[in-house]
Amino acid sequence: MSQTMYASSVSVFKQMLGGLAANLAKAETHAAEKNIEPTAFTQARLFPDMFPLSKQVQIACDFARGVSARLAGAEVPKYDDNERTFEELRGLIARSIAFIDSFSEAQFEGAAGREVVIRPGTPKERRFDGQGYLLSYGLPQFFFHVTTAYALLRHNGIEIGKRDYMGQY
Known about the structure:
Layout: H1 5-33, H2 39-42, H3 53-72, H4 86-101, E1 115-118, E2 126-129, H5 130-155, H6 162-166
Antiparallel strand pairs: 1-2
């Protein structure tokens, strides 16, 4: 039995975003217990030219929503990406999970061969078939930002490990 595009995308996004939300909750608790200003975490960067934690979470959510919508043949929603607090970031994750959860598996029928056209930060467009888009672009981008968010939290002293990163599976 082959893996469906739905299972390869929506299920993975939900699992990893759930883990990310739980890690943000741990960071918020840690900040409160240690009397650390929460922005020390939400604005933390691994290097000055990298995005802060808040932006890493926003981009991960953008990819989860965008990839799912494109594969389902639906409109990609536009979000303001102005979340700054742990609560706002967890709310964004919850809204993103609710959005991708609104798709049925039937909407992903034929998604592997569906043409996906994107303009990744440039006027130049990129064309993929659905499977290539998911496997060579969408998932790697999503995992980069989820992993970077994890690394930022771990680097800043939040006691999380691989099980926390993986979420519920």
